[in-house]
Amino acid sequence: MQCQQELRGRIDKRFCSDSCRTQYHNEANRTRNRRFNYVHRQLKRNYAILEMFARKEQSQVHLRELWLLGFDTKKVTGVKLAKTGKITFELYDLTYRISDKNQIEFEKTSLTKSHLCSSNYSKKI
Ligand SMILES: [Zn+2]
Question: 4, 24, 106, 110: least buried by Cβ within 10 Å?
């Protein structure tokens, strides 16, 4: 199935060697993963962009600024709809809202817990 070499041995044999079998499966996995990799890459890019602003302790940033950096608002890891009608977007451990004026508003709880205070937290221990 990999190299077209004539097979000898068992009737159900599909590969001439271990290296041909490994090569075949690696190539199949690479093709299979290609569709996921695009989304994973964009999620990671989105996260890196948001985290950059979170580190600055900036609580708001205009959506335009994020778009210019390559942020894709369609790639999130979760969406929550509150009873108030407000939508919160999740990107791994970061959460944010988009205001009527297209401002991204970070949820301070997740930012402070997971990022901004992580160094302070380790000092306490
Ligand atoms: Zn082979």
Answer: 4
CA of 69 to the centre of ligand 1 (A): 46
CA–centroid distance for 94 within its chain: 12
Distance (Å, whole) CA 99 – CA 87: 10
Please report which confidence band the pLDDT of residue 54 belongs to, taking 50, 70 and 90 as the band edges: confident
Pairing of strands 87-91, 94-98: antiparallel
Are 89 and 98 spatial neighbours (Cβ–Cβ below 8 Å)?
yes
Cα of 22 vs centre of ligand 1, distance in Å, is 10
CA dist 2 and 16 (Å) reads 8
Residue pair 82/57 in contact by the 8 Å Cβ criterion: no
Answer whether residue 123 shows pLDDT above 80.
no
Q: The tokens of 28 are what? A: 């199949």
Instruction: Report the C-alpha dihedral over residues 40, 70, 98, 43, rounded to 10 degrees.
Output: 10
